[in-house]
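Table S2 (continued). Query chain:
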Amino acid sequence: MKCLCATVAIVIATSFCFSTSASAADPFDYNYACLSSLYSKYLKNEKVNYSALAIHEKELDECVKTISKAKKKEYQSFTLDQKRAYWINAYNIFLLKIVVENYPIKGGAKYSKFPANSPMSIKGAWTDIRFKSPEGKVTLSRIENNILPSLGAPFFIFGICNGTKGGAALSADVYTAQNLHVHLDKAARQFITDKRNVSLSPTGSCVLVTPYLKNHASLFTSGNFKPGQYKNREKREIILMNLLAKYGEGELTKIVRSNEFKFTWTELDWSLNDIL
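Corresponding output:
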């Protein structure tokens, strides 16, 4: 009887070990089902229902956990596009977590250059708050300014959402290796054809452009800059003109190609992309 009990104990213990091992080895979800589910519930018309998300923060925490559980060894086996998609999704979900943790946002006097409800009013949001990742503890700034640029996908700037109305919109479609380039191309076209970001003056003599494009123009140097392509234009203007010619529509592209206009930089809307 003692022998039988010992045998059963060994079998149970062995089964438990296999179960634990299988659980620990669960493959990473490259389709980001958790994020898709979250976005379908709390995203509407490119805005976020932060008040509802704050009430159901456990769902958000599960998504943060899903992103953060990727191990370094596993990440090293990712394809280039899998890495790009990973960091775009990571940035977006980490940003949501930061906003919800500080919602409703009430900026202090020190951050008065931004609207009181702006994510930019959250102290250290980009530089101090860290999240677990395959590359160690990361900040939003490190993802945006170091990791993603090093992966050679400049159009990521249209995929990451900084939580403001003036930045790129948060897409309800999560990024995967399979849809990455199609979705980023779609996001770039959507951003540039939005008249809040790029428009013509009534006379057509000025192209009004958001500083968001102006500030990130250098990312698109490769393939969009040819010295002397447009007469009397500086490098940044040439880059933007090629982007606008490619993704713009109708009269805008015609005027850009004519090179008979001047750029006017508009104000960037730093307020929170809240559904309320």
